[in-house]
Amino acid sequence: MKVYQIEISNHCNLSCNYCPHPNQKRDKGYMSMETFKISIKLLKKCGQKIAYLHNFGEPLLHPKIFDFI
Asked: What are the backbone angles phi and psi of residue 8, rounded to the nearest 5°?
């Protein structure tokens, strides 16, 4: 099984010493529902049944997390 991660938020409220998040230069933001739906369609097309909603951000900080779930 391949691991698919969808980063719906790249905001993070932690400062773990092993994480590269504090050094990242990209703008902070939240994924739109439209982009999320496109991502899910692509996952289904690949036959994937599981996706993790994190990468370097904390998904629970997304203001619409319940809509994404």
From this structure: -80, -15
pLDDT for res 1: 62
Token pair belonging to 66: 């319940």
Q: Which residues sit opposite 51 in a β-bridge?
A: none
**Residue-by-residue DSSP string for the chain:** ----B--SB---S---TT-SGGG--SPP-B--HHHHHHHHHHHHHTT----BS-SSS-GGGSTTHHHH-
Asked whether the predicted pLDDT for residue 64 surpasses 90, the reply is yes
Paired tokens of 8: 């719906």
- What does the domain layout of the chain look like in residue ranges? 1-69
Bridge partner residues of 37 (DSSP): none
